[in-house]
Input
Amino acid sequence: VVVAPPATALYTVAQAVAGSAVEVSAQNLYPKDEGAFTGEISAPMIKDAGAKWVIIGHSERRQYFGETDQSVQQKTVAAMAAGLKPIVCVGETLAERESGKTLDVVFRQVDAVIDDIAKQPGFAVIAYEPVWAIGTGKVAPDAQAEEVHAAIRGRLNAKSPKLAETTRILYGGSVKPDNAAALLACPNIDGALVGGASLKADNFAAIVAAAPKA
Output
């Protein structure tokens, strides 16, 4: 279980979960370790706060802050170089899905980081989050989500069977207690990237409880 509080709470949360099975993630990072980048947070700063993970390329970052496949790749490299485990987000918009471009978009986004994550198989995580399902209450049907996850797994396998076998692929997009178990039972869905439901402790705990135990 990994929780991703705002940057101002990283240290406090890391202290609160110390010694437990819960780890901490930042929601973003800047790809340079140091320099004149006022207001940004670097990988060393995140590690110093006690986090071990970082979310990269979340759809909101791509949509509202102009992040590109190139910047996501740069951030992934920076995270891995610092020993932070990246959770790299990919996913299509509603318009892209309706025009039949889902896999084209997802493959392009995966390909941007595949060479880098292949250097350390199993260290990075990929999160598939269809943009049209985030915060909308809409969730991709189990079969639809599994189809994309299987395609991502196949893309990783074409690069390296070990990469495909060891990479966790998470599903994100209106995951709730009442749909988590069915989603997490899909063969290629290895976990969930939980948004709104994580803000209510009972709901988040129920989603955690729904995950198959290793």
The longest strand covers residues 85-90. The chain has a mean pLDDT of 95. Residues 24 and 51 are 5 Å apart (CA to CA).
